[in-house]
Write a structure and sequence with these properties.
Arc Repressor Mutant, subunit A; about 200 residues; transcription regulation; Rossmann fold; 2 domains; 11 helices; alpha/beta; five-stranded parallel β-sheet
């Protein structure tokens, strides 16, 4: 089932087993690797499916894996798993070519949805994505302050840090954040960051 093949890279054996079990149960074909070098060494070209990799690993981490992945000419979509609060890492991963990121601990259905989207995605389809065009148009409706909060959020700032940077209270940051989430129609921070990176805003 090449169309549903997922290559899972994680140095934590329990996490690897857990993800493999979940994906297998959901009908995906799964290959597991304990290090990014294993994936690079063992993956044939042309390969099929998509890659799910942790970002924080000993040896070569997820970012270095992405750099080597693209340098080797691989084009499979890559979804990265990040720890809570690793927004700057997620942004960097997407700039290096990851198509999505998912924060741990994640909901099983959210992971499955991210992988289904990755398996369907191609560069051309993504570039012409009407959702992305709509997002860019909606960002244009933000006030100057909302746009400043958006930029700080995508850079990984917490409400406290953003408040300090913009000289406003964390509570006021939360209000601007709620407004900009509503205006951009992003369901959560992950979606906001993904769209911002794909639109070249981040």
């Amino acid at each position: 089932m090449a169309a549903s093949l997922v290559h899972v890279v994680d140095d934590d054996p329990a996490m690897r087993d857990s993800i493999a079990f979940l994906l297998d149960t959901a009908g995906f074909d799964v290959r597991v690797y304990e290090a990014g070098t294993d994936l690079l060494d063992r993956l044939p070209k042309p390969a099929s499916g998509c890659v799910l990799t942790d970002i924080r690993m000993p040896g070569i981490d997820g970012l270095e894996l992405l750099r080597r992945w693209r340098a080797a000419g691989h084009t499979l979509p890559v979804v990265v798993m990040t720890g809570h609060g690793d927004v700057p890492l997620a942004v960097e991963a997407m700039k290096l070519g990851a198509c999505d990121f998912i924060e741990k601990p994640f909901d099983d259905e959210a992971l499955l949805q991210a992988l289904r989207s990755a398996l369907k995605r191609s560069g051309a389809a993504q570039a012409a994505d009407p959702t992305l065009r709509d997002f860019v148009r909606r960002v244009g409706t933000l006030s100057e302050r909302e746009r400043q909060v958006l930029d700080q959020l995508v850079a990984g700032g917490t409400s406290k840090e953003i408040g300090r940077a913009l000289n406003i209270s964390p509570r006021t940051v939360e209000i601007y954040r709620a407004k900009l989430m509503a205006k951009t129609q992003a369901g959560n921070l992950q979606e906001l960051v993904r769209w911002a990176v794909l639109a070249g805003i981040a």
